[in-house]
Amino acid sequence: MAVLVKINRRSNVSEFFSFVALPQRYSDQQQSQFQKLEFGIQYLMDGGTLNIKKWVVMYPVYINSKKSVAEGRRISLSKACENPNCIEITDCYKHLKLPSAVEIDKAYPRDFMQVGRVRVQLKREDGTLLNPAITSSKTTSAS
């Protein structure tokens, strides 16, 4: 499940969008993929707010085989894929049954033209793992 989230930093309020206007650097196909993402409103069933600030951040650059380690790649070339996007990463997390959130308006700090990141919840509030097979963010990158 994926959630499109925009965090208002001034008020620390999460806003949910059913339609997000994306920058022009995305193709029409990518824009339609972003708009077709499922919304995980069921995360709010307990009446609390969605706290994704403690979730692990995953930029597509981390697993891009076209990037060097100096440019931000974090895993080996044999495990990396070519030019991943947030949609593909979210689909992988959905397959692993891990809740994830796409933040479209965030940019990679080293290269601000790389827009979008994915947050994933690996642990519950009490510290237990959601998926015992996934112990760290490096394990999810290699999956």
Euclidean distance between termini CA atoms: 17 Å
- Beta-strand share of residues: 15-25%
**Neighbour order of strands in the largest sheet:** 2-1-4-5-3
Report the average pLDDT across residues. 73
CATH class equals Alpha Beta
Can you put this structure into words, describing what you see?
- One of its GO terms (cellular component) is signal recognition particle, endoplasmic reticulum targeting.
- Belongs to the SRP19 family.
- GO terms for molecular function: 7S RNA binding.
- This protein has 143 residues and is α+β, with helices and mostly antiparallel strands.
- The protein has one domain: 2-Layer Sandwich (Phenylalanyl-tRNA Synthetase, Chain B, domain 1), CATH 3.30.56.30.
- Helix content is 17%, strand content 23%.
- It has three helices and five strands.
- A hairpin with a 4-residue loop joins strand 1 and strand 2.
- The longest helix has 10 residues.
- The chain is globular and about 35 Å long.
- The protein starts with a strand and ends with a helix.
- 24% of the residues are buried.
- About 24% of the residues have low confidence.
Blueprint (SSEs and pairs):
Elements: E1 2-8, E2 13-16, H1 28-35, E3 56-58, H2 86-95, E4 100-108, E5 111-120, H3 137-142
Parallel strand pairs: 1-4
Antiparallel strand pairs: 1-2, 3-5, 4-5
Essential attributes:
143 residues, alpha+beta, Phenylalanyl-tRNA Synthetase, Chain B, domain 1, 5-stranded mixed β-sheet, 5 strands, globular
